Amino acid sequence: MKQEHCANTPPMGWNSYDYYDTTVNEEQVKANADYMAAHLKAFGWEYVVVDIEWYAYDAGSIRERYQYIPFWKVEMDAYGRLLPCPQRFPSAEGGKGFAPLADYVHALGLKFGIHIMRGIPREAAHRHLPVYGSSVKANEIADPSNICAWNPDMYGLNPACEGAQAYYDSLFALYAEWGVDFIKCDDICRMDMPSARAEIAMLHRAMARCGREMVLSLSPGPAKIEEAWYYAQHANMWRITDDFWDHWDSLKDMFDRCELWQRHVSPGCFPDCDMLPLGKIGKAFGNERDTGFTRTEQVTMMNLWCIFRAPLMVGAELTKLDDWTTGLLTNETLLKCVQNGGTPKLLCRDEESAVWMNEDSVDGSIYLALFNLGEQERRLFPEAAALLANGVSLMGKKMRSAWDGAYEAGKMRHDVSVVLPPHGSVFWVWR
Fold it and tell me: What pLDDT shows up at residue 103?
């Protein structure tokens, strides 16, 4: 069984990918962890996650040609388990792995996470390395026809082979020794390779056996809605989209995805809308830039992620956040909904608008988020009939805007409305 006490609320943290791609190093991870501890930890932000190819030598050195250099040198132990590249993570020298960096993050009162690819390194199979805890070799459990379409590092495992589970068990035992708290496993969530579904269960078993509480996040999406129960049984987060970037069309599309997955948000189980591309992003892609979202669209993104209670992972370089973006990430009303809310509900939706609600499980507050998805200014209402159908009445309650805390209206009627700009939104709390 999944660890029921793990990630009872949506995980919140920082991931290195949107800014650093494959290139992040130890100094940069520490700098972002320091910033989180000083400025965000008090608001619930806690995970520091090193994303893809931390084991690769020369990562990003020919980015104009390859995101992942084909069949390049990787750091690996005698049992085919990838280790941090000492070029970028010098504290990993001598077989220490990520333990020293995890210790640093833990000393700040934060949690440490890593990205992994599904399967076993191709080099381990080619070298016929032994599998720790098993009598078989890496080439016996690897399936050379089962490969990732976009990353050249791994073969998928053959779940029917003796020793395949032992390999995952040995991985998670190693990660537990390092002090890892969060695993993001890639090339697995959308189950477009023959062993992916079985490998999800293998990851889950390995995590349960390792003796350390960890969050399991599955990527990339879109996840299969018909497999919702399976994700919930085996993981804490699963991506409902492919990589999400800072384009309005992608954000508008997320309203469809959240509508599809709304009933599957529950303690320990969170459909994942992907990272928040805020602040400075894109350095390793050739040009550091500010997010392409307008400020209005950034507020809309935060309002949707928080009313939906999606995991919150920031992709920006934290040390370069401005005061406005920091304020976006530390809005106490929105984060209270993330931490205390229940299952989100879409009250109404058309091509131009959406109205979502959630309810605070601690104090009974009602959260409402209204969205203008169109290209013209529009007046929106909270849909009284839909609220009443869900057993919610706003009569006699006081309303406050999450983004304008000074505004306090007296006793509100059901016919309250708001005029929103194109792509704009409002987040209200009634109590």
Answer: 98
Type of residue found at 114 = I
Closest to 146 (Cα-Cα) out of 117, 110, 113:
117
Which helix (H) or strand (E) element contains residue 31? helix 26-35
Element (H, E) at 261: helix 248-261
Alpha helices in 330-403 (DSSP H): 332-340, 384-389
Q: Which two tokens stand for residue 353?
A: 């608008």
Separation of alpha carbons 132 and 237, rounded Å: 28
Phi/psi for 347 (5° steps) reads -85, -40
- 182-186 and 111-117 beta bridge pairing: parallel
Task: Count other C-beta atoms under 10 Å from residue 316's C-beta.
Answer: 24
Evaluate whether 429 touches 400 at the Cβ level (below 8 Å): yes
**120, 92 Cβ separation under 8 angstroms:** no
How far, in Å, CA of 53 to CA of 69, rounded? 10
Place of tokens 């000083």: 38
Residue pLDDT, tens place only, 22-79: 999 999 999 999 999 999 999 999 999 999 999 999 999 999 899 999 999 999 999 9
pTM for the structure as a whole? 0.95
H-run or E-run covering 324: helix 323-329
Alpha-carbon span 111 to 163, nearest angstrom: 31
The closest alpha carbon to 52, from 164, 152, 143, belongs to 152
CA dihedral 193, 194, 196, 197 (to 10 degrees): 130
Cα–Cα distances in Å, from 144 out to 11, 90, 124, 133? 35, 33, 12, 22
pLDDT of residue 410: 42
